[in-house]
Amino acid sequence: MIWLSSLTIWRKPASVSPSYHVFSVGPRRWKSAVSSTMIWQRFKKKYPRSFVGLAQAPLLDGKPALDELRRAINDLGLRGVTITSQVSGLSLDSPQFYDFYETVCKLDVPVFVHPALVPMGYEHLKDYDLPRVLGREVDLTVATTRLIAGGIFDRFPNLKVVMAHFGGGIAAVKDRLVGKGYRFGTLQKPFAEYFDGIYFDMAGFEGGLAALQCALQGIKPERLIFASDYPQDFTGVNTDTGKGMTELRNYVDAIRKLPIEADNLERMLGGTAAELLKL
Question: How many CB atoms lie within 10 A of CB 156?
Answer without folding.
Answer: 17
